[in-house]
Amino acid sequence: MTIKEAQKQMKSGELGVNSKKMFRTFRRLMSYMKANKWLLVLVLLLAIGGTMVQVVSPKILGNATTLIFEGVSSKTGVDFTKLVWILVLVGLLYFGNFIADFLQQALMTAIAQKTTQNLRNDLKRKISNLPSSFIDEQSNGNLMSIAINDMDNIATMLQQSFVQLMSSFVLVIGMIGIMLTISWKLTLAACLIVPCSYLITRYFTPKARVNLEKYLHAQGNLNGYIEEAYDGYTVIKSFNYEKVAFNQFEHINKEMYETGCKSKFFADIMMPILILMKNLIYVISCAFGAVEVLTGNIPIGNLQAFLQYSTQFSKPISEFSQIWSDMISVIASAERVFKILDEKERIIYDRKFVNREDDTAKVRFDHVQFGYSKELLLKDFSLTVEPGETIAIVGHTGAGKTTLLNLLQRFYDISGGSILIDGIDSRNLSYEELHRRIGIVLQEAWLFSGTIYDNIAYSQPNATKEQVYAAAKAAYVDEFVRKLPKGYQTVLNEKANNISQGQRQLITIARAFLANPEILILDEATSNVDTRTEMLIQNAMKQLLVGRTSFVVAHRLSTIYGASKIIVMDHGDVVESGNHHDLLAAQGVYADIYNSQFLSAST
């Protein structure tokens, strides 16, 4: 939404819809504070108590001024005993106000941090239950910005602005009440700031909100670009892409700068305007109050108290623009969080699909249909895999190889047909049960910052040391780990680039072996390793794939010669199947792929 559109909506009255949306978001955010409702009640009571102290203190000080003025004017002298008691009482009230403010801030900090902790937990659970298609469509930088920056913004604003908002509301109500007891005419003059504040806030809020949303979006884009640039730093340097990369960074950074400046300008400009209005109204109150004193309508002490009240009364109203700016920021961040929380989760079927208990196949794709869009990639795919078989899947890029494996793991849900594991429709299995049966090794080795031991044990946290070491030996990890200074306690850095790429892949294979799954998926698992490492992996596979059903996707045909069955895919269909020798003899697609690899390599 552009600023002009926001202005049009404001003129046509449509802005009320956004106001309702903001209120709904704020109310939903407040629902996360229900767990701490008694602390909130205590904060509210402290705010009322502290505010009442601020309300009555000027009135008591006004009595002191009247006492001095009357004592001097009547020439009877000032009653210093009574004056001292008044000053002591005011001092105690101010000290009580300090204690109330301190406790408010301490309690609100705890409430704000607990609220964002619960929000982060819900966000993490939500992302874990979202389909892979959602993650594929999102920028990592934007998700990180929501999980970190927006959460931090909510926590900071809640613990600062929420208390201030409650205190200001109570203060304004209390001040109006006590000011009316002094002079309704002066009170009416002081209250002129209220409609002025409303009009100014109503005019500038849409502009501030629109630019703030753009700023937060640009912030997410910048986070994503920085992550991408640092991840590909070597490639950028190798191709002399620094200037282009910097220009792209500068463009995103400029957008963030411009929207950030505009959002802060429109949010912050309200305060100086309101301060100007406050000062003008204060001058009017002083002039009108002086006339009231000279005409004998109010005592001079009451005028002094009223001027203090008018200052305290107008202060929260003039500061309301800043509080409102902060609340807009909180709501904008909360909306980004709630947008993810409202996304549709992975489908959990409440109805049972047809199982085939008499089916002896380990995995069966039965007339499967699937497409990432309306156009189907797999139109009528069928494949039977017997227990212990190793199925190699080959084909040109885009043939549907990885898609097939994603469907097996239910990263995406099929549009038609069924996928059965041991005769059970995979949709009848929970995600946890399904993934316990399947282990996977991807082309890109994913390791986290931690020890080599912890990375291997990731698939089975309760595994014994003997089991971890056995998996490492079977995957030929033990051989190179023992040569490292700290062995299995060697800490991998963030990118795990303190070991070679082949060693990283071997660790992920050891991790999959430790999981001891019924079905093993190797998606281009050997494409990033050298010939010697590839031979080590193949030797390990011969031992560890015995009795285990496996799917192997490989562009290197040399890694799949021993597969039980090779299926050749093209545009989502199986166009050929058989063993290596039969497919070569058929002189079809497989033979073309084979010849393109090995004949070109020999020339």
From TrEMBL:
A molecular function (GO) term: ATP binding
Domain ABC transmembrane type-1: 41-329
Superkingdom, natural source: Bacteria
Domain ABC transporter: start-end pairs: 363-596
Pfam families named in the record: ABC_membrane, ABC_tran
Transmembrane intervals: 82-103, 161-180, 186-205, 280-300
CDD domains xrefs: ABC_6TM_Tm288_like
InterPro entries cross-referenced by the UniProt entry: AAA+_ATPase (IPR003593), ABC1_TM_dom (IPR011527), ABC1_TM_sf (IPR036640), ABC_transporter-like_ATP-bd (IPR003439), ABC_transporter-like_CS (IPR017871), P-loop_NTPase (IPR027417), Type_1_exporter (IPR039421)
SMART domains xref list: AAA
SUPFAM superfamilies named among the record's database cross-references: ABC transporter transmembrane region (SSF90123), P-loop containing nucleoside triphosphate hydrolases (SSF52540)
Keywords, comma-separated and alphabetical: ATP-binding, Membrane, Nucleotide-binding, Transmembrane, Transmembrane helix
Protein localization: Cell membrane
Topology with respect to the bilayer: Multi-pass membrane protein
Cross-referenced PANTHER family: ATP-BINDING CASSETTE SUB-FAMILY B, FATTY ACID ABC TRANSPORTER ATP-BINDING_PERMEASE PROTEIN
Protein name per the record: Multidrug ABC transporter ATP-binding protein
Source species of the chain: Enterococcus silesiacus
Lineage: Bacteria, Bacillati, Bacillota, Bacilli, Lactobacillales
